Structures are given as C-alpha cells and as structure tokens.
Amino acid sequence: MTDIERPTHRDLTREELRELAQRIAADPAQWSAHVAHDPTQRTYAELLRDEHVDVWLICWSEDHDTGFHDHDLSCGAVAVVDGAVREERLVLGGEPTARVAGAGASFDFGAADIHRVLHHGDVPAVTIHAYSPPLVRMGSYLVEDDGTLQRHSVSYEEELRPLETAAG
Questions:
Q1: How far is CA 54 from the centre of its chain?
Q2: pLDDT tens string for the chain (168 positions)?
Q3: Peptide bond into 124 cis (omega under 30)
Q4: Which terminus, N or C, of the chain has the lesser number of Cβ atoms within 10 Å?
Q5: Dihedral angle sign, alpha carbons of residues 64, 71, 127, 122
Q6: Where exactly are the transmembrane stretches of this chain (predicted)?
Q7: Does residue 142 fall inside a structural domain?
C-alpha cells in the first residue's frame, strides 16, 4: 500500500486524510483480505504506517463502541465502506451531537476533538481510518455520573471501548 498517492515528506491535513481514506476505501484490493467480523469485538488491521501517516481497516458489528476518546496529537478521517457508523461529539453541559455515516460517506476530526464511534444499523460495517501524524497514544474518557470528565492515556495498539465496559 506504500504506493498510494499522498504527500510523503510531511504530515497530512484533515482534508488530505479524508481524501486518502476515501481513495483507499474505493480500492478493495488494498483492504478486502483483512475484513473479518467478530460479534464480540471490533476487528482491525493496520494497512499502512510511515513517519507521517497510518491507515487502518476496522470492522464493526452490533454494540461495538469506541467510547469517548481523542487522538492525542493526530488528526484523522474515516471513510465508510459498508454498513454505517454513528459519530458522537462530546458537548459540555448537553447531550453529544451525533451524525450517522453510511457507505460512501466520510468525516474527519482534529487532534483535540473528543468523539466516539459506534456501529449503527442492522448490518456489519467496514471503515477505513487515516491518521497524521501516526497514532502513538490516545485519550479515553470516562464521564462520571456527576458530570466530571476523566482522561486515561492509552496506547494506539489498545482496542478503544467505553471505560465503563473496560472497568466492569
């Protein structure tokens, strides 16, 4: 996959990440061998990693949920190949904003954005994720009953999930 056209001498912008994720999503030869759905957990495969970008394939089934998180220093973009996912962004003092992205749709986010991604609908989903600079750490958030917010630093290699589930 290293032959995918992209800037190779610098980190990518959000717009460039979105275009990259869309191009890869449109080329199943780059990722189809890695599609595997497991109802108990998201499955994922790193498709590309260099000093400026990393790209992942993630497979989603019912009840799969990243929990609220940020991407530390990395911007990112998601292109939906099959099925649908719902992105929610944390809002202080109110309910999270939400949008559903189905096959062919994409969205992006900044390094400081706190969001969660969940499977949506009745059929499994497949998404392509691109990050720049490459992920190293992420912040996983716990919203306490009293509204306080706790950030827990996790490695990019760990599966994100709601902290309530991880602790329980």
A1: 12
A2: 556 777 777 899 999 999 999 999 999 999 999 999 999 999 999 999 999 999 999 999 999 999 999 999 999 999 999 999 999 998 888 889 999 999 999 999 999 999 999 999 999 999 999 999 999 999 999 888 887 889 998 888 887 878 874 444
A3: no
A4: C
A5: positive
A6: none
A7: yes
Contact call for residues 130 and 107 (beta carbons, < 8 A):
no
Tell me the binding residues for Fe cation: 69, 71, 115
Query: What is the C-alpha separation between 106 and 140, in angstroms, rounded?
Result: 22
pTM of the model: 0.90
State which residues form the domain around 82. 14-155
144 found inside a domain? yes
Total of domains in the chain: 1
Identify residue 77 by its one-letter amino acid code: A
* 133 domain residue, yes or no: yes
One-letter identity of residue 16: E
SS3 128: strand
The rounded distance, in Å, linking the Cα atoms of 123 and 119 is 9
- Which CATH number does the domain housing residue 64 bear? 2.60.120.10
Q: Is residue 168 part of a domain?
A: no
